[in-house]
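sry for the spam today, last one i promise. struct tokens for design, 150 residues
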């Protein structure tokens, strides 16, 4: 379905040159926003950049629950992450699986190592997408900094 959506979007782009409106086709995994304030996500990113080591730990209010998700063209129950800052729950940001990202971030003190571990365990993502998802995980309270982290 993703390939079909991409083909339709590409076809719509060609059609838009002829004066027709361009289609706005989105896929759940490509959503760019989480409705968290952008300033919070940017502040989390700046803090990640300023640290010598990530020192990520699970957020104090992180909970994992079963909720609806999309797998291919089917609606399925999947694990979702929620916290006091984001009680409705989410699983993906910019195609990054937050559940897998949390495991990588907790296991690796350096962002490049966490990114490499993430890409080795699931479908590879770009560094900008990984950093956006990592920043979102901190802003949402899914991750916190270990008090001993530098």
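last one done:
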């Amino acid at each position: 379905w993703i390939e079909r959506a991409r083909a339709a979007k590409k076809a719509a782009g060609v059609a838009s040159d002829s004066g027709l409106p361009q289609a706005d086709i989105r896929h759940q995994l490509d959503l760019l926003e989480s409705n968290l304030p952008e300033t919070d996500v940017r502040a989390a990113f700046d803090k990640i950049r300023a640290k010598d080591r990530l020192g990520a730990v699970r957020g104090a209010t992180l909970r994992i629950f079963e909720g609806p998700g999309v797998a291919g063209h089917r609606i399925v129950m999947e694990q979702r992450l929620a916290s006091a800052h984001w009680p409705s729950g989410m699983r993906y940001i910019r195609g990054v699986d937050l559940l897998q990202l949390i495991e990588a971030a907790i296991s690796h003190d350096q962002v490049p190592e966490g990114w490499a571990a993430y890409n080795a365990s699931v479908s590879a993502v770009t560094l900008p997408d990984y950093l956006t998802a990592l920043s979102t995980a901190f802003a949402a309270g899914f991750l916190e900094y270990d008090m001993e982290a530098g």
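The mean pLDDT is 83. ok im logging off now
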